[in-house]
Amino acid sequence: MHEMSIARSLFKLLNEAASKKKAKSITNISVNVGRFAGVETELLQRAFEVLVQGTIAENSELQITIIDFTLLCKTCGKKTIKDEIDMSCPVCLHTNTTVVSGQEIFLTDFEITV
Questions:
Q1: What is the extent of the structural domain holding 34?
Q2: Angle at 55 between CA 53 and CA 59, to 5 degrees
């Protein structure tokens, strides 16, 4: 379950930031996860909950936002949201495309109490 390693990395980032500010608690954590990032969001949620028990993030709430898989066609310039990993442009049918979003995992926001 790689969601546990993702949760560990997330907690490490949060803990480092909280330590620099001498925080007493971490709350309201927001994460963006791309639709095709290969992450099971329910497993990530559970892994994070288990990991933060007994820490300054124990009472935190992890909010996960799913980011659509979006392509940019380099041929016709259209941006398209896709429901499947299909690299062809639905407008001009070329495969000269770039992934704009949908495969990433980002910590976007969190709150601390000092």
A1: 2-68+102-113
A2: 65
47 SS3 class: helix
pLDDT tens for each residue of the chain, 114 residues long = 589 999 999 999 999 999 998 999 999 999 999 999 999 999 999 999 999 999 999 999 999 999 999 999 999 999 999 998 889 999 999 999 999 999 999 999 999 888
Split into its structural domains, the chain has a count of 1
Q: Is residue 33 part of a domain?
A: yes
Distance of CA 30 to the CA centre of its chain: 8
In sequence order, the β-bridge partners of residue 62 are 29
99 token code pair: 């992934």
Please answer whether residues 86 and 57 qualify as being in contact, where contact means their C-beta atoms are separated by less than 8 angstroms.
no
